[in-house]
Write a structure and sequence with these properties.
Elements lengths: L3 H6 L1 H10 L7 H33 L6 H34 L18 E6 L12 H7 L3 E2 H8 L5 E2 L2 H19 L4 E3 L4 E3 H7 L11 E2 L4 E3 L4 H6 L4 E4 L5 E10 L18 E11 L4 H18 L4 E5 L11 E9 L4 E10 L3 H6 L1 E4 L5 E2 L2 E9 H11 L7 E2 L5 H4 L3 E2 L4
Parallel strand pairs: 4-9, 8-14
Antiparallel strand pairs: 1-11, 2-3, 5-7, 6-7, 9-10, 10-16, 11-12, 12-13, 13-16, 14-15, 17-18
Helix pairs in contact: 3-4, 5-12, 7-12
Length: about 425
């Protein structure tokens, strides 16, 4: 969340940041409420000063002369209480509006209107040349007995799938491989968080109130299914003060993610590409403010390492201002080549949120000089598991319909080839 003092002191920076994001909202109501709040606080301060004067006068007056002053003191006290209620109401309304305002882009982020203005930074690997017509993963997965779309639909409705046999095993293998790589090679601590989170935790991560229509809500308990493991990882240290020597905190978590995808019109909506429930391995760090942009590049490299180990060709995208995630100041996307789509498809997003989430979640750091500051938080996919499986099926497919298993996964799966079930 953006601090109120920043909003008050730098309204034009706020407006410019929103313009770069192509956010056309009016801020008139916010600044009107801030002006009313400031006026009410000024009035209350004047009344406190007046109240102090009356109380001092009462002490020096004879008892018979105190009645009028006591009457004035009572009235002033009532007026102060009314102003307190008004200020509380105004601050609640201001706070709600601030919670709906996205983070502002870093100055290095390219300005743009959408996907066409994202910047391709680099490519890795060559898309393979096939001497046959490559099939999309949902056809391959069905033929191999790995992906059961009708079964998922019968159980839970559209955009759910059931993984069977080697499909379930490959999903589990990818999760283990990603977690092992990030813990053993990249220095992350593995976390297995709850799949349900409280409303303040979602709000702290920046998911509420903006994305409330996209999350699954258990109304009786006011609990929500995780839309991403980033959310409970933010919540892990909410309302706490960390010692500076604890930083950086590096967490990696696997969880199932749940998203309603209400109103989604993505072209990537078949097979494993856009589901209501999917597995994801999430990278998350809490770092000192001065280290966050260096950490962003390091985390990008950690996500890339998984794609390189699996030998999946990909490209790195720098998101333009209009495509930044809500809480992010700067973000990279990794897109893997999928021959069945004849296109690059997003498989990871890595973002720096600076102090935006820390303020919302009330995560603070006590420095060596005993100052209290907000740290920076970063998150990234390391990777989206279903999309990784989809890429493997499409890129490693053979003319006979079988799929070669990448070398790094063979010790986990105990096989080098996925064949149709007998």
């Amino acid at each position: 969340m953006l601090p109120l003092e920043f909003v008050r002191q730098h309204p034009e920076l706020l407006r410019e940041g929103l313009r770069k994001r192509r956010d056309t909202r009016s801020l008139d109501e916010l600044f009107r409420l801030i002006d009313q709040r400031n006026a009410a606080i000024a009035s209350r301060d004047r009344l406190y000063a007046l109240l102090k004067t009356h109380k001092e006068q009462v002490r020096i007056l004879p008892i018979v002369g105190r009645a009028e002053q006591n009457k004035n003191i009572k009235q002033i006290t009532q007026d102060i209480r009314q102003l307190d209620l008004s200020i509380d109401n105004l601050e609640t309304r201001i706070q709600f509006i601030l919670l709906t305002i996205p983070n502002l882009p870093h100055k290095s982020v390219p300005e743009g209107d959408g996907e066409a203005d994202d910047v391709v930074l680099r490519y890795w690997g060559e898309p393979p040349a096939f001497h046959f017509e490559p099939q999309p993963h949902w056809i391959l997965g069905e033929r191999l007995g790995m992906i059961d779309v009708p079964g998922g639909t019968r159980i839970a409705g559209s955009r759910f799938v059931t993984l069977k046999g080697m499909g379930a095993r490959l999903e589990r293998t990818l999760i283990s491989f990603m977690l092992d790589t990030h813990t053993n090679e990249h220095g992350y601590t593995e976390i297995l968080p709850p799949f349900l989170v409280k409303r303040p935790v979602l709000q702290g991560a920046g998911q509420l109130p903006k994305f409330e229509e996209q999350v699954y809500h258990c109304q009786e308990d006011d609990l929500f299914l995780n839309p991403t493991a980033e959310v409970p990882l933010v919540g892990l240290h909410s309302d706490s003060i960390l010692a500076t020597e604890m930083l950086p905190l590096r967490y990696v978590a696997w969880s199932s993610a749940f998203r309603r995808e209400a109103g989604s019109a993505s072209r990537h909506n078949r097979g494993l590409l856009r589901l209501h429930q999917f597995n994801k391995v999430e990278l998350f760090q809490i770092v000192a403010a001065q280290d966050s942009y260096q950490t962003l590049e390091v985390m990008l490299g950690h996500a890339e390492a998984i794609l390189r180990a699996l030998e999946l060709p990909y490209r790195v995208i720098e998101c333009c201002t209009a495509n930044l995630p809500f809480a992010a100041t700067k973000s990279y996307d990794l897109e893997v080549w999928m021959p069945g789509q004849q296109n690059y498809v997003e498989i990871a997003s890595i973002s720096n949120c600076e102090a935006y989430q820390a303020r919302r979640a009330n995560i603070k750091v006590r420095t060596a000089q005993n100052h209290i500051e907000y740290p920076h938080t970063l998150n990234g996919s390391g990777l989206a598991v279903g999309r990784t499986m989809a890429a493997l099926l499409e890129l490693y497919q053979q003319a006979d319909g079988s799929v070669v298993v990448p070398k790094v996964l063979r010790p986990y799966l105990g096989t080098s080839l996925l064949n149709s079930p007998r």
